Amino acid sequence: MRRLFWLAMGITIGVLVVRKLSAAADRLTPQSLAGSLAEGLRDLAEAIGDFGADVRAAAATREQELRAGTGLDAPLPDRDETPLPQRRGAHAADN
Prior knowledge:
mainly alpha; 2 helices
């Protein structure tokens, strides 16, 4: 009875080992490696695209903040409303 148990145990372990080795061999075929590489490159390209989009969005937001803070987007005054600077010095009497 004990021998039959160990025989069944050996057969079971042997089957499991063969299955694991077959699965590992299937993963290491050139087609499988190429598929994994292609999937990895696709994921990398997607991550780089997402990072670029985040950077562009943050840059646009910061540019708007800077423009609002410096008044670069303020409308220009009309020419008639712009006061001319007063001259001072030796040539002030000429005006």
